[in-house]
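User: Predict the full complex structure for these chains.
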Amino acid sequence: MSSLPDRRKVVVTGIGAVTPLGIGATTLHDRWADGVVGIEDGAGRSREFAPEDHLSIKEARRLDRFAQFALVAAGEALAQAGWDGEPPYDPLTVGCVMATGIGGQNSVETQLDVMRAKGAKAVSPLGIPQYMPNAAAAAVTMKHHLQGQSYGVVSACASGAHAVGSALRMIQYGDAEAVVCGGTEATLTDFAFACFGNMQALSVSGFSRPFDLRRDGFVMGEGSGVLVLEEAEAAAARGATVLAEIVGYGSTTDAHHLTAPEPTGGPASRAIELAMRDAAAQPDEVDYINAHGTSTQLNDAAETAAIKRALGDQAKRIPVSSTKSSIGHLLGAAGAVEAVATVRTLITGVIAPTLGYEVPDPKLDLDYVPGESRALITGNGHPPLALSNSFAFGGHNVTLAVRGAPK
Amino acid sequence: MSVTTEQVEGRVVETLASFGPDASQITRSATFEELDIDSLDLVELAQVVEEEYGVVLKGEDMKELKTVGDAVDLIVERAG
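Assistant: Here is the predicted structure of the two-chain assembly.
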């Protein structure tokens, strides 16, 4: 592969999350590491989220639940970054990329009901601003006065990871000094359950147990993950605390089937390789993989194949665990929430397990971190390096490479 | 059906309060700008008014409205 041009370094200075485990990035990783499962009755609902705890009446009624989640996660991430109300850079150089798989599903359904009951004239003027997939990006920019590039990203279950990758490139190539990026999703409606259920993607048992022989589909969840990325020198100049460095991004497409992954894991493995190339890292440097690990038969097999193909004989050494075992599949938010969990893994040095993994599938032979949390071990004395995979319906593949902050 | 100014005012205040501003701030002389009530809010208010009183308020009607009192008076006038 050809060499890459010199590009600016990008660091993470803030993270935030709203998930079925509660409010907060620390809550997410701590509870997952403690073995807590946020799934109840076959759904990963963000039960601890109450809009009135975080948002004004106006914000709450103008924003669909998916955008509300993003606003709260972004607020946490920016508070940690210490931005204190205004960006520390020219606002025109601060971007925002906020992904979603679907957008304001609840609002679409509500307004359709209104139209069917009372006619077209009764449909709310807030319908479009509530359900447009870019509503979360718009809400975050308005709240925090971010005037650089901003947009939504839509690539189903890879959306959140694409958002982080897009933000990384934006800063690397000088289009922004900082970007607030992430993903958000709120689709726990009867309609969405019917759609995903009828395509036989959802778990019938209601258990999310990635890589386990008994896995029978994903468990749908909701929530948001947000990261504040800054150009490294600018972050250092303002005295920001660096949480981690985003060192690589790779993305490919299966071009194979609408919903099934390409079974050999070829294009997905290429995404991993591209992220590694971006990071200028070798397979023996990878200390942890946060898997896409959906708990579907097809994903977990194809992902295992992709990891082995990309990392060769190092694959079996590397601990691989799935956040979805604790919170379910947050669709367009998943990649961002899992990037947040990966950053927490690097900060704490604690690898959370793949919960519910008890019966190994003889065909899947990586170290899926069964049972309990374990210490993140780095072999070479350098800051630890982690990968986070996201693979989507539609065949979109993304891998992010994240390095721990230097001690 | 005739409605009183008090009835309309009560309904308008209640509706506007559900959009965000504190009910105590919503006086007849308060401007929509002060209350952070924008054009989207006014369309919603018009929908409530139409359903409640059968009064149709169009975009050009709304543009002229500056204060809560302006809106109440227009609705009462049209309903009467």
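Chain B has a mean pLDDT of 93.
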